[in-house]
Design brief:
By secondary structure, this protein is mainly beta. The protein has 2 domains: 142 residues, Immunoglobulin-like; 138 residues, Immunoglobulin-like (Sandwich). Helix content is 6%, strand content 44%. It is built from 2 helices and 23 strands. α1 runs antiparallel to α2.
Length: 331
């Protein structure tokens, strides 16, 4: 069994002082074990959705593209410890490159109660930024501003753990990190016509995440641009959509909004006559954190796409679509 690594975070201790000069409670060693937890079996999800001989090459490509995202491995680990009094002060913070699925530490910190918040895979994700780090109540992940953003390059994980250390008791804590991100793939059957120039974007997803409360925020509309894996497969990583608990079910929405669903895939196809057809695929179930959703469609001669064997996905088609309005799509 590996011995825990003793980490002093590069600080020299004077008496019991660690962060602030006013600390009066002596510290002691605490053992923390960080472990990534996946809720999706990527292999099983792809195998269940893509079953035909024709789909096997697409499944292989999608599996290869998704593997790093659903690997359950942390590149970087961000650790914050906050006081639990009304000041909610940041008592200690550390960011470290770990490149592992599990990491153990022995920390020497004052014997106090803490709210511990942890984030994984933040450093290499240019689509998001962390703000409000001085207080647990304000610490959040925010998606950067932009009309249409690229697919998130990493899957973000988070954890929150109240640590009751003021009194003698547990000296070992297990921190389970769960995925904050989601993933979507669009698989196209174009047997009736040759593949055409196509762009795919995802809408209806969150723009922020409050770490302490483990809740998503939807401050403004956003579009996430899919990455083209093949002519017949497009994929993207984003934050989740609204959940069933956070938004009324589509059937309960006003008539004008029924087709909006919880989240949408917007598909733009440029035809040989240089006109563009827009299809909005509206999904009536939530895109959940930690999940991969695969939507299969058939491409028609007019440039529209139609959902295949999925009653939970509706389609709205605009022929000769013109760019403009709230979002600009590069088609």
């Amino acid at each position: 069994m590996k011995r825990p690594v003793l980490i002093l975070f590069g600080l020299l201790f004077a008496g019991c002082n660690l962060i602030y000069d006013d600390l009066s409670v002596c510290g002691k060693d605490y053992y923390l074990n960080y472990e990534m937890r996946l809720v999706t079996d990527i292999q099983m999800t792809i195998d269940e959705k893509l079953t035909t001989i024709k789909e096997r090459p697409i499944a292989d490509t999608l599996r290869q593209w998704m593997a790093p995202i659903f690997s359950g491995e942390a590149h970087d680990l961000d650790m914050s410890f906050f006081s639990t009094d009304e000041l909610d002060r940041l008592r200690y913070h550390k960011n470290e490159i770990i490149n592992a699925k599990q990491k153990s530490y022995t920390l020497y910190i004052p014997r106090e109660d803490y709210m511990h918040l942890a984030l994984v895979n933040i450093l290499n994700n240019h689509n998001i930024a962390v703000s409000g780090e001085d207080h647990a109540a304000t610490m959040r992940i925010a998606q950067i501003s932009g009309d249409t953003l690229d697919s998130h390059p990493t899957a973000v994980y988070s954890a929150r753990l109240p640590m009751q250390m003021a009194q003698e008791g547990d000296e070992s804590y297990y921190v389970h990190l769960y995925m904050v991100s989601s993933a979507v793939a669009l698989v196209v059957d174009s047997a009736k016509i040759d593949p055409l120039d196509m762009k795919v974007v995802l809408s209806g997803t969150a723009t922020g995440f409050d770490v302490r409360d483990s809740s998503f925020t939807y401050d403004h509309p956003s579009l996430i641009r899919a990455e083209r894996l093949t002519d017949l497969c497009y994929a993207m990583v984003s934050l989740p959509s609204r959940s069933a608990a956070a938004a009324p079910a589509p059937a309960l929405l006003p008539e004008a909004k029924k087709e909006a669903g919880y989240w949408q895939l917007k598909v733009y196809v440029r035809k040989p006559d240089n006109t563009v057809t827009e299809t909005v695929l509206s999904v009536d179930y939530p895109l959940l954190a930690g999940r991969l959703e695969i939507i299969k469609v058939e491409l028609h001669e007019d440039g529209s796409v139609v959902p295949l064997a999925n009653s939970h996905v509706g389609a709205s088609v605009t022929l000769d679509w013109k760019a403009g309005g709230e979002h600009e799509i590069d088609v």
